[in-house]
Fold:
Amino acid sequence: MRIAILVVGMGLATSLLPAQAATPAEDKCTALNGLSIAPSAIGLPNSGAAITSAQFVAASAAAGEHCRLNGAIRPIDPKAPEIRFSVALPSDWNGKTLMLGGGGFNGTVPNVAGQQTVGPFDAPPPVSRGFAVFGSDGGHQGTTGAVPFPNVDGSFALNDEALANYAGDALKKTRDTALAIITRRYDRAPTRNYYAGGSNGGREGFVLLTRWPQDFDGAIIAYPYWSAVVNSMGFGRMARAAAAPGGFLPPAKQTLLFNAVMAACDGLDGAKDGVISNVNACKFDLASLRCPAGADSGDTCLSDPQIHTVRTIEDPVTFKFPLTSGETGFQGWPVLSGADIRGQQQLGSAPPTSPPNANQSMLAIFWDHLVRYAVARDPMLNTMTVDPENPGPLQARLSQVEGMMDVATSDYSAFQAHGGKLLIVHGLADAVVTPRSTILWWGRLKAKMGADTVRSFARFYTVPGYGHGPGGLSVYMAAWDSLPALDGWVDGGKAPGPQIVADSNAATKGRTRPLCEFPAWPKYAGSGDVGQANNFSCVVE
Structure:
């Protein structure tokens, strides 16, 4: 009951209403502020954790009613940064959790009350569906400085504990801390624990499922950066080619290349719809764009050095030295079958330099920071002098860092025996994390565990025209409501049936395609609306 009190004085009458009493959910939220988690509750060495803020968030169009907690896990090394995390606790909890992964070098905390990072982009956020959602910054706080985004700042890697946290330790520490908080808030442990992450978050998912397979019941992995250092060696090869005299493709020539590939291969799937679905049949002749005599003569052709850059990006390479994980090479990116290298996330608008310039490729910046901070531990190093194929005195350390970060194992038997389920998706037009690496990983997984065993717990989907998630360039920006598919498989025992992905691009929003299991791709039936999935079928040709 609210009681109005009328105050009269100096000719003014004011109705004073006392603040409305807090609800039980609000009280439980604010009571968590300052809560400490003992080091013994966290599975890896740490100095304890604490909640630094607790905010009750009323239901809105953006998210359902929940408690938003922020906190920090303290390091062992006093010079190491803390691990900052967030937890979103719904008032109406379904008894399940969802951990979100990061991206790039991490450095920022995921929006735990926002959309699922792997997609979809139109469905309710997981916290609105009753999931307790959490994530962390990977064990350091990124700054912009000379780089365009915090998650491309690798300076944290000068510290051993921070590098180990990024490589994987922060994941376990965050998970254990979050589950202790969730159990405290609801007075019961979760019934199911899920994970979702893309790019570096995909690598993080592979780390979790192989190092701590009992911790999760299911995972959604998108465009996984599982071979992080190997992929970065590809970044380095691209950067050196683009930085060589005459090797950089300015934006107009990047567009020339993309449009030429699209014109040659768009119709190979039966539909001229701006999406290359039959990528294996796309055999674009790069020589058709060569300038007369190979000399640069404007934006209508590519010079020989520019063709060399494109071939460096496209072609696989075998390394001349062993890596700790056993990897022997890099697969290259499918730029001659639809991957779009335009924009800063891919090739950028200026040639790479060291130290980086603000307009160059983010991929080149990532390689630069990996080498300077994690490998050489020399912030002043000119990384343009470092050849990833012949790294000289840095070879042993590069291999060591690769062994820390890359997740090359194909043994997921412990996760499978635990009853875990795995959904993987990768865009076939990804120009950041090559889809060829996930295809390679998938083949190794089936060879190691057997095709029937793999099918009992995993599905791998590929999406033509889909780039590197919501931050990449995609002619088909796939939105897939993957969380119900995973939850239904884990908790309901119902393996995923036919799935549909919708396009989230503004100009083509709402068109749909079947989500095909690799190696199948969506082929147009020859009649009907090309914007409707029922006019396509998944085929293997």
Q: What stands out?
A: The longest strand covers residues 49-57.
